[in-house]
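Hi R.,

Here's the chain you asked about this morning:
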Amino acid sequence: MKRVGLIGPADRDELVRLAIRLEERGAEPVFLDPREDAAIAMDPTHVFACGEDLSELSACYVADLALRRPYVLDDQGVPDPGASLEALDASRRQLAIWNAVLERLRRRGPVVNPPRSHDLHGLKPWEMAVYARLGLDHPVTLSTNDVATVQSPPSSRSGAWIRKGLVGGVSYTESFTPPGNQDEAKEALGDGPLLVQERVAGDNVRAYVLDGRILGAAVVVPALADDTDSRRDTHDVRRYELPDSAAQVAISAARHWGMIFTAVDFMIDAASGSHLILECNSAPFFVNFEKQTGVPITGELADFLISPPRPVSPF
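And the predicted structure, written out as C-alpha coordinates:
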Protein backbone atom coordinates (compact mmCIF):
# COMPACT_ATOMS: atom_id res chain seq x y z
CA MET A 1 0.00 0.00 0.00
CA LYS A 2 1.33 3.44 -0.93
CA ARG A 3 1.73 5.93 1.92
CA VAL A 4 1.21 9.64 1.21
CA GLY A 5 2.28 12.31 3.67
CA LEU A 6 -0.14 15.18 4.41
CA ILE A 7 1.68 18.03 6.16
CA GLY A 8 -0.47 20.59 7.94
CA PRO A 9 -3.21 20.87 10.55
CA ALA A 10 -5.02 17.54 10.71
CA ASP A 11 -8.38 19.33 10.81
CA ARG A 12 -7.80 21.46 7.69
CA ASP A 13 -10.61 20.74 5.23
CA GLU A 14 -8.28 20.23 2.28
CA LEU A 15 -6.26 17.57 4.08
CA VAL A 16 -9.34 15.79 5.46
CA ARG A 17 -10.91 15.63 1.99
CA LEU A 18 -7.63 14.55 0.38
CA ALA A 19 -7.20 11.77 2.95
CA ILE A 20 -10.65 10.41 2.06
CA ARG A 21 -9.84 10.37 -1.65
CA LEU A 22 -6.51 8.64 -1.02
CA GLU A 23 -8.18 5.93 1.08
CA GLU A 24 -10.80 5.41 -1.64
CA ARG A 25 -7.92 4.65 -4.01
CA GLY A 26 -6.26 2.17 -1.68
CA ALA A 27 -3.51 4.47 -0.37
CA GLU A 28 -2.72 5.30 3.26
CA PRO A 29 -2.76 9.00 4.21
CA VAL A 30 -0.16 9.86 6.86
CA PHE A 31 -1.04 13.04 8.75
CA LEU A 32 1.96 15.10 9.85
CA ASP A 33 0.71 17.98 12.00
CA PRO A 34 3.61 20.42 12.54
CA ARG A 35 1.77 22.63 15.05
CA GLU A 36 3.27 20.58 17.85
CA ASP A 37 6.95 19.71 18.16
CA ALA A 38 7.74 18.08 14.81
CA ALA A 39 10.65 16.11 16.37
CA ILE A 40 12.51 15.77 13.06
CA ALA A 41 15.47 13.43 12.75
CA MET A 42 17.45 12.32 9.70
CA ASP A 43 20.16 9.73 9.19
CA PRO A 44 21.58 8.13 6.01
CA THR A 45 18.64 5.74 5.63
CA HIS A 46 15.65 7.17 7.50
CA VAL A 47 13.68 10.35 8.03
CA PHE A 48 11.44 10.85 11.06
CA ALA A 49 8.98 13.69 11.74
CA CYS A 50 5.84 14.16 13.80
CA GLY A 51 6.19 10.67 15.25
CA GLU A 52 6.27 8.97 11.83
CA ASP A 53 8.94 7.21 9.79
CA LEU A 54 8.80 9.07 6.47
CA SER A 55 11.31 6.88 4.65
CA GLU A 56 8.61 4.85 2.91
CA LEU A 57 6.37 7.73 1.83
CA SER A 58 5.74 7.66 -1.91
CA ALA A 59 4.56 11.31 -2.12
CA CYS A 60 3.82 14.33 0.04
CA TYR A 61 1.33 17.20 0.02
CA VAL A 62 2.30 20.33 1.98
CA ALA A 63 -0.56 22.52 3.18
CA ASP A 64 1.12 24.38 6.06
CA LEU A 65 4.45 23.92 7.86
CA ALA A 66 3.30 26.01 10.86
CA LEU A 67 6.62 27.83 10.98
CA ARG A 68 7.28 29.78 14.15
CA ARG A 69 6.75 33.52 14.10
CA PRO A 70 10.08 35.25 13.36
CA TYR A 71 9.47 37.97 15.99
CA VAL A 72 8.37 38.46 19.62
CA LEU A 73 6.15 41.29 20.85
CA ASP A 74 6.39 42.80 24.31
CA ASP A 75 3.42 43.64 26.58
CA GLN A 76 2.77 46.84 24.58
CA GLY A 77 2.74 44.98 21.26
CA VAL A 78 6.16 46.34 20.24
CA PRO A 79 8.77 43.94 18.77
CA ASP A 80 11.41 42.93 21.32
CA PRO A 81 14.76 43.21 19.43
CA GLY A 82 16.70 40.60 21.36
CA ALA A 83 13.92 38.03 21.62
CA SER A 84 12.96 38.63 17.98
CA LEU A 85 16.48 37.81 16.77
CA GLU A 86 16.30 34.51 18.63
CA ALA A 87 12.82 33.83 17.23
CA LEU A 88 13.99 34.63 13.69
CA ASP A 89 16.94 32.26 14.06
CA ALA A 90 14.66 29.49 15.38
CA SER A 91 12.18 30.00 12.53
CA ARG A 92 14.98 29.85 9.94
CA ARG A 93 16.35 26.65 11.44
CA GLN A 94 12.87 25.12 11.48
CA LEU A 95 12.41 25.98 7.79
CA ALA A 96 15.88 24.68 6.96
CA ILE A 97 15.27 21.23 8.40
CA TRP A 98 11.85 20.95 6.73
CA ASN A 99 13.49 21.92 3.43
CA ALA A 100 16.04 19.15 3.95
CA VAL A 101 13.31 16.61 4.78
CA LEU A 102 11.20 17.51 1.77
CA GLU A 103 14.19 17.51 -0.58
CA ARG A 104 14.98 14.02 0.68
CA LEU A 105 11.38 12.90 0.14
CA ARG A 106 11.38 14.39 -3.36
CA ARG A 107 13.86 11.68 -4.35
CA ARG A 108 11.12 9.11 -3.82
CA GLY A 109 8.10 10.87 -5.28
CA PRO A 110 6.36 14.20 -5.84
CA VAL A 111 6.29 16.84 -3.14
CA VAL A 112 3.41 19.20 -3.89
CA ASN A 113 3.72 22.77 -2.50
CA PRO A 114 7.29 22.70 -1.13
CA PRO A 115 8.31 25.81 0.87
CA ARG A 116 10.02 27.45 -2.12
CA SER A 117 6.64 27.66 -3.89
CA HIS A 118 5.22 29.61 -0.91
CA ASP A 119 7.92 32.28 -1.29
CA LEU A 120 5.99 33.81 -4.19
CA HIS A 121 3.38 35.15 -1.73
CA GLY A 122 5.98 37.62 -0.49
CA LEU A 123 7.31 38.59 -3.92
CA LYS A 124 4.29 40.27 -5.54
CA PRO A 125 6.21 43.17 -7.17
CA TRP A 126 8.74 40.71 -8.60
CA GLU A 127 5.96 38.36 -9.73
CA MET A 128 4.25 41.11 -11.73
CA ALA A 129 7.59 42.23 -13.21
CA VAL A 130 8.24 38.67 -14.38
CA TYR A 131 4.84 38.49 -16.10
CA ALA A 132 5.72 41.71 -17.90
CA ARG A 133 9.10 40.30 -18.98
CA LEU A 134 7.43 37.10 -20.20
CA GLY A 135 5.00 39.13 -22.29
CA LEU A 136 1.91 37.95 -20.42
CA ASP A 137 -1.04 40.34 -20.35
CA HIS A 138 -1.28 41.79 -16.83
CA PRO A 139 -2.56 44.93 -15.08
CA VAL A 140 -0.24 47.93 -14.85
CA THR A 141 1.39 47.60 -11.42
CA LEU A 142 3.49 49.95 -9.30
CA SER A 143 5.37 49.17 -6.06
CA THR A 144 6.91 52.12 -4.24
CA ASN A 145 7.71 53.87 -0.97
CA ASP A 146 8.57 57.13 -2.78
CA VAL A 147 6.34 60.13 -2.04
CA ALA A 148 6.60 61.66 -5.51
CA THR A 149 6.05 58.39 -7.35
CA VAL A 150 2.90 57.44 -5.45
CA GLN A 151 1.38 60.81 -6.36
CA SER A 152 1.94 60.21 -10.09
CA PRO A 153 1.50 56.53 -10.97
CA PRO A 154 1.99 55.49 -14.61
CA SER A 155 -0.93 55.74 -17.02
CA SER A 156 -3.35 52.84 -17.06
CA ARG A 157 -6.03 51.64 -19.45
CA SER A 158 -8.85 52.25 -16.99
CA GLY A 159 -7.54 55.36 -15.23
CA ALA A 160 -8.64 53.82 -11.91
CA TRP A 161 -6.47 52.14 -9.27
CA ILE A 162 -6.61 49.61 -6.46
CA ARG A 163 -4.28 49.04 -3.55
CA LYS A 164 -3.07 45.49 -2.83
CA GLY A 165 -0.89 43.91 -0.17
CA LEU A 166 2.74 43.32 -1.09
CA VAL A 167 2.37 39.91 0.56
CA GLY A 168 -0.39 37.75 -0.93
CA GLY A 169 -3.38 36.82 1.21
CA VAL A 170 -2.55 39.18 4.08
CA SER A 171 -4.92 42.07 3.33
CA TYR A 172 -7.92 42.87 1.17
CA THR A 173 -7.75 44.80 -2.09
CA GLU A 174 -9.13 48.33 -1.77
CA SER A 175 -9.84 51.25 -4.10
CA PHE A 176 -6.98 53.73 -4.36
CA THR A 177 -6.87 57.37 -5.37
CA PRO A 178 -3.39 58.86 -5.94
CA PRO A 179 -2.65 61.42 -3.21
CA GLY A 180 -3.01 65.07 -4.14
CA ASN A 181 -0.05 66.36 -2.15
CA GLN A 182 3.03 65.28 -0.24
CA ASP A 183 1.32 65.09 3.15
CA GLU A 184 -1.38 62.79 1.78
CA ALA A 185 1.28 60.70 0.03
CA LYS A 186 3.24 60.29 3.26
CA GLU A 187 0.07 59.26 5.08
CA ALA A 188 -0.77 56.72 2.34
CA LEU A 189 2.69 55.21 2.55
CA GLY A 190 2.60 55.11 6.35
CA ASP A 191 5.65 53.23 7.56
CA GLY A 192 6.31 51.19 4.45
CA PRO A 193 5.91 50.68 0.70
CA LEU A 194 2.64 49.93 -1.03
CA LEU A 195 1.55 48.19 -4.23
CA VAL A 196 -1.03 49.80 -6.51
CA GLN A 197 -2.49 48.28 -9.64
CA GLU A 198 -4.82 49.50 -12.34
CA ARG A 199 -8.42 48.59 -11.64
CA VAL A 200 -9.80 46.26 -14.28
CA ALA A 201 -13.55 46.41 -14.86
CA GLY A 202 -14.70 42.83 -15.38
CA ASP A 203 -14.91 39.38 -13.86
CA ASN A 204 -12.44 37.70 -11.53
CA VAL A 205 -11.54 34.14 -12.63
CA ARG A 206 -9.67 31.44 -10.75
CA ALA A 207 -8.19 28.46 -12.61
CA TYR A 208 -6.62 25.40 -10.97
CA VAL A 209 -3.54 23.89 -12.59
CA LEU A 210 -2.09 20.46 -11.81
CA ASP A 211 1.02 19.10 -13.48
CA GLY A 212 0.70 21.19 -16.62
CA ARG A 213 -3.06 20.91 -17.22
CA ILE A 214 -6.15 22.87 -16.29
CA LEU A 215 -8.44 21.09 -13.82
CA GLY A 216 -11.18 23.70 -14.09
CA ALA A 217 -11.97 27.37 -13.73
CA ALA A 218 -14.73 29.57 -12.36
CA VAL A 219 -15.84 33.18 -12.19
CA VAL A 220 -15.87 34.41 -8.59
CA VAL A 221 -18.65 36.96 -8.10
CA PRO A 222 -18.52 39.37 -5.11
CA ALA A 223 -21.68 40.11 -3.12
CA LEU A 224 -21.45 43.80 -4.03
CA ALA A 225 -21.06 44.69 -7.70
CA ASP A 226 -18.37 47.34 -7.07
CA ASP A 227 -16.40 45.37 -4.46
CA THR A 228 -12.67 45.25 -5.19
CA ASP A 229 -12.09 41.89 -3.45
CA SER A 230 -14.42 38.91 -3.89
CA ARG A 231 -12.84 37.17 -0.88
CA ARG A 232 -14.50 39.68 1.44
CA ASP A 233 -17.99 38.43 0.66
CA THR A 234 -18.46 36.00 -2.23
CA HIS A 235 -21.91 35.93 -3.76
CA ASP A 236 -21.47 33.16 -6.29
CA VAL A 237 -18.91 30.93 -7.99
CA ARG A 238 -19.82 29.99 -11.56
CA ARG A 239 -17.95 27.35 -13.54
CA TYR A 240 -16.19 28.89 -16.54
CA GLU A 241 -14.58 27.49 -19.67
CA LEU A 242 -11.15 29.10 -19.80
CA PRO A 243 -10.14 30.06 -23.37
CA ASP A 244 -7.13 28.18 -24.73
CA SER A 245 -4.99 31.32 -24.75
CA ALA A 246 -5.66 31.99 -21.05
CA ALA A 247 -5.20 28.31 -20.22
CA GLN A 248 -1.74 28.40 -21.79
CA VAL A 249 -0.88 31.51 -19.77
CA ALA A 250 -1.91 29.74 -16.54
CA ILE A 251 0.08 26.63 -17.42
CA SER A 252 3.13 28.68 -18.49
CA ALA A 253 3.07 30.74 -15.29
CA ALA A 254 2.81 27.64 -13.09
CA ARG A 255 5.65 26.00 -15.00
CA HIS A 256 7.81 29.13 -14.72
CA TRP A 257 7.47 29.12 -10.92
CA GLY A 258 7.96 25.36 -10.68
CA MET A 259 4.50 24.85 -9.17
CA ILE A 260 3.01 21.39 -9.62
CA PHE A 261 -0.32 22.56 -8.19
CA THR A 262 -1.58 26.13 -8.10
CA ALA A 263 -4.60 28.39 -8.45
CA VAL A 264 -4.06 31.13 -11.03
CA ASP A 265 -6.13 34.31 -10.76
CA PHE A 266 -7.16 36.46 -13.73
CA MET A 267 -9.27 39.53 -14.35
CA ILE A 268 -11.29 39.56 -17.58
CA ASP A 269 -11.28 43.05 -19.06
CA ALA A 270 -14.95 43.65 -19.90
CA ALA A 271 -14.02 46.09 -22.68
CA SER A 272 -11.55 43.88 -24.57
CA GLY A 273 -12.25 40.37 -23.28
CA SER A 274 -8.54 39.99 -22.43
CA HIS A 275 -7.55 37.76 -19.52
CA LEU A 276 -5.03 39.66 -17.36
CA ILE A 277 -3.02 37.46 -15.02
CA LEU A 278 -2.91 38.55 -11.38
CA GLU A 279 -1.02 35.85 -9.48
CA CYS A 280 -0.26 32.19 -8.86
CA ASN A 281 -1.27 30.84 -5.45
CA SER A 282 0.65 28.01 -3.80
CA ALA A 283 -1.21 25.58 -1.50
CA PRO A 284 -4.56 27.12 -2.47
CA PHE A 285 -7.79 26.30 -0.64
CA PHE A 286 -9.99 24.21 -2.88
CA VAL A 287 -12.71 22.38 -0.91
CA ASN A 288 -15.35 25.12 -1.21
CA PHE A 289 -14.42 25.74 -4.84
CA GLU A 290 -14.91 22.02 -5.52
CA LYS A 291 -18.30 22.00 -3.77
CA GLN A 292 -19.52 25.06 -5.66
CA THR A 293 -18.30 24.05 -9.12
CA GLY A 294 -18.12 20.27 -9.17
CA VAL A 295 -14.51 20.37 -10.40
CA PRO A 296 -12.96 17.17 -8.93
CA ILE A 297 -9.79 18.81 -7.64
CA THR A 298 -9.25 16.49 -4.68
CA GLY A 299 -9.64 13.32 -6.72
CA GLU A 300 -7.23 14.60 -9.35
CA LEU A 301 -4.71 15.49 -6.65
CA ALA A 302 -5.06 12.06 -5.07
CA ASP A 303 -4.52 10.36 -8.43
CA PHE A 304 -1.39 12.43 -9.05
CA LEU A 305 0.07 11.73 -5.61
CA ILE A 306 -0.50 7.99 -5.98
CA SER A 307 0.60 7.63 -9.61
CA PRO A 308 2.70 10.57 -10.84
CA PRO A 309 3.16 10.43 -14.61
CA ARG A 310 6.93 11.02 -14.47
CA PRO A 311 9.65 8.90 -12.85
CA VAL A 312 11.52 10.32 -9.87
CA SER A 313 15.16 10.17 -8.78
CA PRO A 314 16.21 7.34 -6.44
CA PHE A 315 16.09 7.98 -2.67
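The first strand starts at residue 3 and ends at 7.

Let me know if you need anything else.
M.
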